[in-house]
Design goal:
This protein is 29% helix and 35% strand. By secondary structure, it is of the alpha+beta class. The strands form three sheets. Strands 8, 9, 10, 11, 12, 13 and 14 form a seven-stranded antiparallel beta sheet that branches. The protein has a five-stranded antiparallel beta sheet with strand order 1-2-3-7-6. A two-stranded antiparallel sheet has the order 4-5. The chain contains six helices and 14 strands. The structure holds thymidine-5'-phosphate.
Amino acid sequence: MKKMGQLYEGKAKKVYATDEKGVYIVSYKDDATALNGLKKGSITGKGAINNRISNHLMAMLEEQNIPTHLVQELNDRETAVKAVTIVPLEVIVRNIAAGSLAKRLGLEEGLKLASTVLEFSYKRDDLGDPLVNEYHIKALALASEDDLRQIKEYSLQINTILGDYLLPLGIELVDFKLEFGKTDDGTIILADEISPDTCRFWDVKTHEKLDKDRFRRDLGGVEDAYKEVLFRLMGGL
Ligand code: TMP
């Protein structure tokens, strides 16, 4: 497979066309941003670590019948993925109050939610990815009713599968963000990434943060936290 022209550059990844129909290449960057791009930095090795973490988790999800964009890891920081049109929604799944939910509703971080919370943000960097509900999604045609139903079903299934997978590795799945895409034939599949950039992972015993909050909140040890997640996924504990 030959890498062709760059199609898109995001905050953490670049996407390239290829000479193969229906296949793109994503390239993970070490760049890190927070606060909707206001805080900028770089985390050494992050691109390669997130590439491996995301591919490992997506392969695990595929085995559990969740369709994903994963085709094949190509090298340290590049992966071949199915070409999709991204649904312009960020789906946020929460099990424990943290981050913007804790702030918005005045909850203590760490409060176990009585049931799973699903939220949607409209993917619009210029607006700071505002929260939207299902009425907005319908009114603005951000996703069809069928697609939204499928996205919600997959998101809740992923929460259960991922949470159950991580717990024995000593990782609590606090919350995470998903993005879905549509292939040419109209199928909804999981896209983007699942990594410490897009999830809150806490150590089960110590509640130590093993995710991007270390960067967002200047806690230090960012690279080590990402490495620790990869180490545990690869069978170390
Ligand atoms: P939040 O508490 O800041 O709303 O974040 C909820 C989850 O979504 C958290 O695991 C981080 C992830 N997330 C992203 O991946 N990208 C984003 O742009 C935002 C705001 C959150």
